[in-house]
């Protein structure tokens, strides 16, 4: 019997933030955990991220941001996915995001936000629990 295909995850760095060490650590951890990961690199527009998600047929999009533009860029990605009929794609984020912004991001469609120091195993466990749920 064939094993199910691994979930495809897109990791993206929206905006002008050029620091990608954390994103690369997440990419490696997800690949090591058996996910198929597409990393878009730095300085991506929300539109570019949405197009990558569409072209790569991903189950989730992870956004990494340190520049402080998360309240603008994360919701633009979520809105762009919905506009393309991709509202089913799980969106999660990480980086330097103040705790008080997390509830607002969640209301705008970002499923989970991970801050500095989060164990990579917590992100792996989160994705497995969210993506392996039976479809209704």
Q: Could you provide a short overview of the structure?
A:
The protein has 136 residues and is of the alpha/beta class.
Model description:
It is a single chain. About 40% of the residues lie in helices and about 20% in strands. Helix 1 (about 20-30) links the parallel strand 1 and strand 2. The two termini are about 25 Å apart. About 35% of the residues are buried. With about 140 residues, it is an alpha/beta fold. Strands 2-1-3-4-5 form a five-stranded parallel beta sheet, with helices on both faces. Helix 1 packs across helix 5 (about 120-130) and helix 2 packs across helix 3 (about 70-85). The mean pLDDT is about 95. It has one domain (about 10-65, about 75-130): 3-Layer(aba) Sandwich (Rossmann fold), CATH 3.40.50. The protein is built from five helices and five strands, in the order βαβαβαβαβα.
Q: Notable features of this structure?
A:
single chain; 5-stranded parallel sheet; alpha/beta
